[in-house]
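Lab notebook, bench 4. Still working through the backlog of constructs that have no structural model yet. Next entry is a single chain of 198 residues. Request: give me the structure tokens for it.
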Amino acid sequence: MAYVSADTRREQLIEAAVRVIAREGADRATTRKIAEEAKAPLASLHYCFQNKENLLLAVFTQLSEEMPLQVDPPEGESVSLGQALEQRLNRAMQWTVDNPVRVRAMIEVTLWAERYDPELSVTFYDGFFKSSEAVLRQADATLSEEKLHSVVRVGMAIVDGLSLQMLTNGDKERALRDTATACAMLKTFLNEPERSTA
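Model written out:
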């Protein structure tokens, strides 16, 4: 059997975990099933991650880093808060549409953490919240903390809700149309004129 480096094995196990979790749910995704899916010895999973909890955390971290949420203003211009929100929501939902298996795994891991380690699930959301807040604060430094927090939470809720709907009904085009509607609603709330930044 050919030698596989620990880094390569970690990547293989994370990818296998994504597939097993999306297919069977986080509860039923045993370390044995994940190792079999990766065609790796069970011992290598325990060597790389020690336990299932660490592997699930690695899965969530990997998937959250993949989601493209950066804001790219046109050269020499700035973007308004509404435009920044629109870019982030559109990119998050396009990634959802393009990666339904990965999104299902991310949702499963989040729900698993909420059931078994609520502090960890709070940590998951805090990471998204802080990164969103930092980016959006650059777009509008004058917005009150309370209003910014509310807009960020609503934006996250929109992505969560539309992702679940898309996974349930499989209608990718509707998910993107509904994202555009949500962006228009947020921009109206922020008193910004409608202008696409997708």
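Notes after review: The chain has a mean pLDDT of 89. The radius of gyration is 19 Å. Flag for follow-up if needed.
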